[in-house]
Amino acid sequence: MKYFPLVLANLGRHKRRTILTIAGVALALFLFASLRTVVTTIGAAAQFGSARRLVATNATGIVFPLPLSYANRLSTVPGVEAVTWANWFGGRYGDGKRFFANFAVDPVSYLDMYPELVMPADQREAFLREKSSAIIGKRLLEVFGWQLGQDVTLQGTIFPGDWTFTIRGIYTPSDAVLNDDMLLFRHDYFDERIGRAGIAGWYVIRIDDPNRAASIAKSIDDQFKNSSTPTKTGTEQAFNATFATMWGNVRLLMGTIGTAVVFAILLVAANAMMMSARERTGEVAILKTIGFRDGTLFALVMLEAGLISLTGAAIGLGAAKLLYRATNFNAAGFLPGFDVTPSTIVIGAGIALLLMLASGLVPALRAARLPVIQALRHVE
Amino acid sequence: MKIPITYNVRSVLRRPLSTALTALGVGLVVAVFIGMLALANGFNTALARTGSDHNVLVVRRGADSELSSGVSRETVSILAASPHVATGPDGRPAVSPELYVLIPLPRPADSTALANVVVRGVSEQAWEVRSNIRIVAGRRIQSGQAEICLGRKLVPRFAGTAIGQSIRFANRDWSVVCHFTAAGSAFESEIWGENEQFMPVFRGEVFQSVTLRLKDPAAFEEAKRAFEDDRRITVDAHRESAFYVAQSQLLGRILQILAVLITSIMAVGAVFGAINTMYAAVASRTPEIAVLLTLGFRPRSVLASFIIESAIIAAAGGLIGCLLALPINGIVTSTTNWASFSEIAFSFRVTPRLLVAGVVFAVVMGVVGGCFPAWRASRLQVVQAIRAV
Amino acid sequence: MALVEIRDVHKTFQRDSQRIDVFTGLSIEVPEGTFLALMGPSGSGKSTLLNLIAGLDKPTSGTVRVAGAEVSAMTAGQLAPWRARHVGFVFQQFNLLPVLTAYQNVELPLLLAPLSKRERDERVRIALGVVGLEDRMDHYPRQLSGGQEQRTAIARAIVADPTLIMLDEPTGQLDAKSSQEVLGLLQRLNQEFHKTIIVVTHDAHAAQRAKTVLHLDKGELIEQQGVAR
Q1: How many domains does chain A have?
Q2: C64-103 pLDDT, tens per residue?
Q3: Which class does domain C32-58+75-226 fall in?
Q4: Can you list the residues of chain A whose pLDDT is less than 50?
Q5: How many angstroms separate the CA atoms of B25 and C205, rounded?
Q6: How does B292-309 read in b/e, with b if 16+ C-beta sit within 10 Å?
Q7: Is A286 an interface residue toward C (CB < 8 Å)?
Q8: Pair A114, A174 in one domain
């Protein structure tokens, strides 16, 4: 556009002001992207889950176990293809400051149920062979400095004592939402050590037809309804979704803060535009005298506001996207797969447009409506 | 010679819109600052109030929360016989063995959302031993009945919580006979019922914790050693207050870190806004500065004057921020305390100290923002400035 | 036909409760190709007259015609492009945009015309050549002397080849030497390039260089010197 040099020249008039304002917008959009990504990441975790997997827990509460004997009975339910089980262990490593999920699983059936846990075949073999072995997510290599073949000792909190395992496998999750910092060890080892209590924390069940998930879940629950340990069965997705709600009203919190952030930067940008506009009344008059139309002047001011907000937005959103990718950020395990989504970027661009309008509209209208005669008094 | 502050105040009022925008920007940062710290504060306070320095909480060795612990009846008897334990008003040892489990309750707003609510089995002693428990509605639980007492914060947040109604869990209906308060502590998010009623339904013959009142609170270390060295039992003894405070560490620290991080980034943006405003102010007032210098005011008075002006604008913003944040005080919110896996409801807590911190924060932003422009103003050569008159 | 026809023009300003009558029935004709100096004490309405001719202001009653078009009846939307085509204006000071170079300042009116970059470049260079500032075209206004600034403003005023060039006290802020430069330039523009020029001025030297001098006092035409063609 041939008017571009004029707009750029105006922005360059107060380089410091322009740079500070762009930087402010960049910071605000960076914050916004970060806050929204917390919400989207929790949301993605809530969505995760295969349509063909069901999770069965104790109906009384998730903290109560189910009998191991249910495994056989579950596999006879029509529609069920495979069954596996796991027990939450909750062990601590070292000073316990870095939390990570660790639980006991039935080795063959669990790995079979979760092809998302990708591991070399020889490591898988080793895990299936050795009773006191464990497999870990690859992030734990950097977090604790562990190595393949190393012995690690966890402090049991629910099941007291020192528990030592040998790391025989390192898995990489094929889906970013799946935690890459878990430790899984063998259920038979676990069961033996706690005196053959024969308990399972939860069961995971693969079914043949995802459309029948609801009815199969119901038939499972019906089977155990009147026993001393009734079950509550639902899709894996529903199970994960309830965990997401346990955070509390995070969406509201992040949304409120995000709004405050956007509002604050709006004030900064509007102030900057206003100051620039006020200083240029005389020049607007000259341009109008030369013959520039009101509409053109309106557009020039809006363009100026737009350049500031869009440049700032590009920097802020880009920085957020790159930073979290580059550092592989996952909030110490609590937010796996933390990544700025395209929707966040689109909304960020929308905010930039909003900023452009809100900061530029009044000065642009004033420039357009400026009665030349009045303004000429500024000139002379 | 000091430049009078009225000069600054009047100058600020001469550009009302610019001043207002800058102050409001600062105000928003302060509001978020106070708001987030009030959230962290509320959470920490709820847990800090949950325990008393007079009590010892005993759990199985290695357990980091009541949930993962298991304490047998024998252990309870051994502990009750200890000379360290105070005697209650009825002559019995002040000992409260308790069951602790979590049950899922659906939230009325969204039935797929479940909250893991604490159900605590108690005996008569609990009402005495645990601190600050007061029944505010209804009557005490009758022994042998499927009755429960609800912490007050549960009442508005779930269905069936009014006196006379009932809540269903573990395949039984439990009738609500009272509501209790506990000075805003975590207990107010719990369901209490009789041990004997809960045990057969949940955990068999095992308690999760034992809380005892010390005869002499100063002798905690001695008592702790006595319990932990006793060969007959395998326990960890904690000061009750310290135990619950430790439970708040994880989430409390996260909230505080978040608060500092978010408001720091916002503050930088607000400072940029202040810098812009002050530079513009200096530029437009160059002739006035020339006059001041000609009159004989020293450059450093000019420096101080502009820094003060920036601080005044920011302080006004700080007050606005306080006003914006005040209304959230007392609002109840809830989250899952990951350390204990249980849902806890607490109120935002805005303290006077927090408000003062907010205003101080604002003034700091103002001083930082005003530094460079004020420096520029003080370096102005009179000759230069006169030319602009 | 005269280039500028002012017929029975009244202009009244309302300032708070005070009513100021600048013109009460003024009529003037300005022929094409003339170099006219408008003189008079302050408050006589010289600047107002200039503004009326340029379409920057409207008369309370009466008509103003420039090159056959009734400027006093045009809307703001019509006046902008009209001015771009027909009028080159120079103020006493602050003519140039400080953020643009001399070249870019002179180019401004051409941005309003459908010309290619090359065509614009050509005309800008010619205009700067006429005022003798080709070697300064990349300088910013703060790097130019007062006289050079005004000559740049004149270059901008002529670059689009307007029908009429109007200047409001162009030498008011200049020293004697710069004033001479500017006035000499104006004379050249009129004699060599046949531009119609109207100058509002206090400066007697300017009046000397002009072909026609009109004296205004209290909104009325007092004297007319020189040949009206």
Answers
A1: 2
A2: 999 888 998 988 778 888 888 888 988 887 788 888 899 9
A3: alpha beta
A4: 380
A5: 57
A6: bbeeebebebbbebbbbb
A7: yes
A8: yes
Helix/strand/coil (H, E, C) string of C122-136?
A: HHHHHHHHHCCCHHH
* Threshold 0.95, pTM exceeds: no
Query: Which pair of tokens denotes residue A328?
Result: 């592989």
Q: Cβ contact (<8 Å) for B171 and A24?
A: no
In a shared domain, residues A169 and A81: yes
State whether the Cα torsion B126-B127-B133-B135 is positive or negative: positive
Query: Which of B24, B36, B101 minimises the CB distance to A267?
Result: B24
A247 CB neighbours in chain B (<8 A) are 335-336
Is A9 within 8 Å of C57 when comparing Cβ atoms? Answer: no
- pLDDT for B203 equals 67
Q: Each residue of B163-222: pLDDT tens digit?
A: 999 999 988 899 999 999 998 889 999 999 999 999 988 867 899 999 999 998 899 999
Shortest distance between the Cα of C15 and any Cα of chain A, in A, equals 13
Which tens digit of pLDDT belongs to each residue from A241-289?
888 787 777 788 888 898 999 888 888 888 888 888 888 888 888 888 8
A25 and A77: one domain? no
Distances (CA, A) of A189 to A103, A251, B347: 12, 41, 45
| In a domain? residue A236 | no
Tell me the per-residue pLDDT of C7-62, one tens digit each, with 9 for 90 and over: 999 988 877 778 888 888 888 889 999 999 998 887 778 888 888 898 888 899 99
The ranges assigned to domains in chain B are 5-48+248-387, 62-233
Among B26, B262, B340, most A C-beta atoms within 10 A, so best to mutate, is: B262
Q: Is the dihedral of CA A255, A47, B254, A30 positive or negative?
A: negative
State percent of chain B over pLDDT 70. Answer: 97
Residue type, B35: G
Instruction: Give the minimum alpha-carbon distance from A376 to chain C in angstroms, rounded to a whole number.
Output: 9
Residues in chain C within 8 Å Cβ distance of A13: 98-99
**Crossing angle for the helix pair A250-279 and A342-369, to the nearest 10 degrees:** 30
